[in-house]
Amino acid sequence: MDVYLAKPRGFCAGVELAVEIVDLALKKYGPPIYVKHQIVHNSVVVAKIEAKGAITVNSVEEIPTDSIVVFSAHGSPPSDYEKAKKRNLTVLDAICPLVTKVHNEAKKYSAEGKKIILIGHKGHQEVLGTSGQAKMDIIDDKNPDIPKYDKSSDIAIITQTTLSVKDTKNAVESVKKYYPKSIVRNDICYATTNRQKAIESLSTKVDIILVIGAKNSSNCNRLKETVEKMGKPAYLISSPREIKKEWFQKKNKIGITSGASTPEIQVESILKYLSPKNIYESKEGNEDIVFTIPRQLRFLTKK
Ligand code: SF4
Fold this sequence. Notes:
- By secondary structure, the protein is an alpha/beta fold.
- Helix content is about 35%, strand content about 20%.
- The site of iron/sulfur cluster has 15 residues, from helix 1, helix 4 and helix 7.
């Protein structure tokens, strides 16, 4: 068996930043540091920060008053900041700058009096955060139910950052059939785009693909779907325990990718289990994007 590693794969700059903010907070204040929502959608990453003294909670209401809390990379609605203020919490926001960009777009278009359509998955943490920034209608990328506005309305289309590039393009086209003059923002982030592009290309060269990461990771699920759309079998797994031998019957070329919140250690454990004859990895596909600690949190880096 030969393994072909997709490139890029794994951690994006937003995930690196979020984890760094939790680490800095733990160093500055000592445990416990509360984290609202999983810092990123990956149980290995969550377990690692929890071992150092972070406590993950699902809502602000669960956090004791006067505590320190890190808000997750996915972004949060204004109501969470209001609740935190009432509890006298110190909030350290680990929102990815590319999600902040979408929040700012929403606020801008709202101030301009435009109707906003957010393409995204209802209930996903990022969508909860973005939809809290301004009045908007949320439509699904796969089954877009187009809101009926006055035909003369000014429309702005914004999106969740971790969607399928192709499904989102189709959803945008559906909206534009009704509202041809809509402003469209390309909000799918570089990490999502690059990983989907890489796996699409790798799908043409291998027999099956393993996507390593969490089942609740939007990024990972979109990678799996991208492979399936290319007509190849794909399995989203987080550890070797989930691997079934029958997946590999008469299959010699195995592709491996991982989502933007998956640490490389999970890929390594799969490789160790498979112990392939050869491991191939493209020399191209490097990413050099790094997000620096935002100005308002730089005090965390000072002794
Ligand atoms: S996947 Fe994209 S939007 Fe999400 S944290 Fe990474 S860079 Fe930011």
